[in-house]
Amino acid sequence: MQAEIAVLRFGLGARPGDLTAAAQEPRAWLMSQIKGPVPLAVNAPLAPSDQIFAGLLAARDERQKMKQASAAESADAKVVFNAVREAYQPHYRAQVLARAQSAALTSRPFAERLVHFWSNHFAVSADKGVVYGLAGTLENEAIRPHVAGRFVDLLTAVEQHPAMIAFLDNQYSVGKDSMAATRVAARFRGADTGQPKRQFGINENLAREILELHTLGVNGGYSQTDVTSFAQIITGWSIGGGKGRLAGGVPGRFYFRDNLHEPGPKVFLGKTYTEQGQRQGEAVLADLARRPETANFIATKLVRHFIADDPPPAAVDRVARAFLKSGGDLPQVYAALIESPESWDADARKFKTPEDFVFSTLRALNVSPAQPEEVIRTFDLLGQRQYTPGSPAGWPDTSKSWDGSDALMHRVLWASRVGAKYESGVEPADLAAATLGAYARPDTLSALRRAATSGQAVALLLMSPEFQRR
Looking only at Cα atoms, what is the longest distance across the chain? Predict the structure, then answer.
């Protein structure tokens, strides 16, 4: 049963041959996958974030020109806006397709699942216009290179990625005593110029989510004062591009705007940070990555994701201790998870999210989607539109969020479509053995034999209780 646990719980579902490959040394099979970066398993021609963001800047310039047009031309502005949005859709579609193909074809399914875990941990949502074409680039550019590295490097790469900065609006955060604010205040000092005064202020979104969702957790011991101080510390963390005083940097890449940064030492969580500029924020991230609250928060989420909705305390403690002892060396953290006895409890199975369900189905049938539309339609139907959790908190990771009656009916509908599409040449009993191994129940095998068609049998297999869990 350990091979089945390694492949189904830690991986993305069994492709033909996976159970055999993992059978001899399941733990070694898992550990071999978490060495070095985790690139996409397909050679997809995806545009980088800076290229996509440069297109966004050009689109905004065009929209601004249309806003300044006469009322008679206002209808054209909407046309231009829609045209611009359609120009970004190929980027989103290409990212979604590449992600699904990689999940279906990868020979490192544990590593690929970890990519998905961290993408949800550091969630951005494509339903915010500025992130529409960038959400997938955060996963590919900031997460995949660092999944098997140090947590502090992963954390820094994510927080400095343009998708995260744009999603949480840190490019608009301006220190009240920054050079930019001081210059503007000087312009309006004295006589009334008749012009509206510019309002500068701190945006706390990124600082708050780093503390609440990315490191310490909501009960991590910080105060509102710490949130405000941290927000001041990361003023100036921005994105290259722009015009006038906002010019500078490579469009679409991280750029530290010193003129927006709140100067001077700052106290955060009882420690005074005297570092200057960009380094001040990086010093805080380095300290956050070493704190026991962060270790416990990350360990809890990993154990919940891989073992049980109610994380066993002993497993959480074991993983957290590995995090602290190693200084956040992620392969050692994953090793502690793999070595936890609770990880190998055959009865501790998680209900699959729609993402788990779809990717494990693709792997079971040994197929890969060819068109982005089929992936997008599938996840729209099942309620987990890719890269669109709608919140910085990401998608929920417990069964109560996914096992409602409507959700199950949608799964039945999709499974029926899949069965009808891929029934040719499929022997359902062999498919059950190859994908579920010892988890295949006699009742399920009997139902497959009684099915009227191979397509119906495939659908029954996909909707069986054992396939719906990992």
Answer: 89
